[in-house]
Amino acid sequence: MKNLILGVAMSICAGAAAAQDVETGAEIYARHCATCHGADARGNGPMAPVLVLQPPDLTALSARNDGVFPMTRVVMRIDGRDPLVSHGSPMPIYGDFFVGDDLSLRTESGQPILTSPAVVDLVAFLQGLQE
């Protein structure tokens, strides 16, 4: 029984990792994020000048976190658990787009965090942008 539970847990974790799609994440980013964060993700999108809070450089998330990608903070900011007024409080302003069957991602502490497939793909894209 213990081996069965372990096997199921491992397959769930493996499924979540396999579900990360950087190309889909790039498409989501271009459609929903680039207007404010910029096509190059450096915070220079065409809407940035009119925002009260300026969008951060998303290519430097790890650099601003001692070289570790801040998975928990990024996921929670995107899926609305850590609301940001400039994102419509709660984020995202796109409503249910970022809601769905949850997948598990491993955070920087090694603990899992559950979020939607769209967020998983978007996070995979953002991780790939880190300098």
Task: Output the keywords.
40% helix; two-stranded antiparallel sheet; mainly alpha; 6% strand; 131 residues; disordered N terminus; 5 helices
What can you tell me about this protein's structure?
With 131 residues, the protein is mainly alpha-helical. It has five helices and two strands. Strands 1-2 form a two-stranded antiparallel sheet. The longest helix is centred in the first third of the chain and has 17 residues. The chain is globular. The N terminus is likely disordered.
Write the layout of secondary structure elements.
Elements (H helix, E strand, L loop, with lengths): L1 H17 L3 H11 L1 H4 L33 H9 L23 E4 L5 E4 L1 H12 L3
Write down the overall geometry: globular
For the CA atoms, what is the radius of gyration?
16 Å
Estimate the strand proportion. Answer: 5-15%
Structural class: mainly alpha
* Sheet with the most strands: spatial strand order: 1-2
How helical, in percent, are the residues?
40-55%
Summarize the entry for a quick read.
The protein is mainly α and 131 residues long. The protein is built from five helices and two strands.
